[in-house]
Amino acid sequence: MGIDEAGRGPVIGPMVVAAVILKRREAKRLKEMGVTDSKLLSAERREELFPMIIESAESYLIKVIEPKRIDEAVSKNMLNLLEAEVMSELIRELRPARVIVDSPMRNCRKFSDVLREFLGDSSVKIIAENKADSKYIQVASASIIAKVERDRRIRELSELTGVEIGSGYPGDPKTREAIRMILKGAEFPRDQVRWKWATINRLLEEIRGNDLTEFLD
């Protein structure tokens, strides 16, 4: 089983964590079809590969972590722990013999230990590596599933609210403009904004000062 996430760094929208179980033959077939790290693929190509991965997978599962839960973890400097907790939920539900995860920590052994502590099961073999999505088809497949799911949710949110969000990442000019509009009173679900992100504070200083109270109530 491969596990990866999409949306760890955005200021708007959820983080999506996906798990995909592939047999060797199916993994080889997906590699030949061009499955790789989702960041190296266009949005159109990810959408094309998405159903192919679903069809090829022995099983798969998606978990969505909403911004409020992410904010709570960030305020306690526990975002890595939150990711490990959600990964452990995926492992418990799909019950693989071996799991490969894209480690959010540089110290991969430490993350593996944290994940096993959440899991509470010593029988599952855990491989935690940085940039695992560029090394293992199982993880690359999970990265595509997670990215497509998150992108769809962001598009739906834009269509629902009429606010052009862009990617939701702080470096995206469309996202920054969307945040400015929200801070100035545009109708937008407040629970889809990560209020603890530094981007919010910087833009808030430009627009209203430092008081976030009216947005968090």
Automatic annotation (TrEMBL):
**What is the top EC class of this enzyme, as a single word?**
hydrolase
Q: Which cofactor does it need?
A: Mn(2+); Mg(2+)
Q: Which molecular function terms from Gene Ontology are attached?
A: metal ion binding; RNA binding; RNA-DNA hybrid ribonuclease activity
User: Where's it found, cell-wise?
Assistant: Cytoplasm
> Which controlled-vocabulary keywords does the entry list?
Cytoplasm, Endonuclease, Hydrolase, Metal-binding, Nuclease
Q: Where is the signal peptide?
A: none
The RNase H type-2 domain, residue ranges: 1-209
Q: What is its EC number?
A: 3.1.26.4
User: What is one cellular component GO term in this UniProt entry?
Assistant: ribonuclease H2 complex
Q: Where does a divalent metal cation bind?
A: D4, E5, D102
| Listed GO biological process terms | DNA replication, removal of RNA primer; mismatch repair
Which reactions does this protein catalyse? Endonucleolytic cleavage to 5'-phosphomonoester
Q: How is the cofactor bound?
A: Manganese or magnesium. Binds 1 divalent metal ion per monomer in the absence of substrate. May bind a second metal ion after substrate binding.
What function does the entry list?
Answer: Endonuclease that specifically degrades the RNA of RNA-DNA hybrids.
Query: Could you say which protein family the record assigns here?
Result: Belongs to the RNase HII family.
Protein name as catalogued: Ribonuclease
Organism of origin is Korarchaeum cryptofilum (strain OPF8)
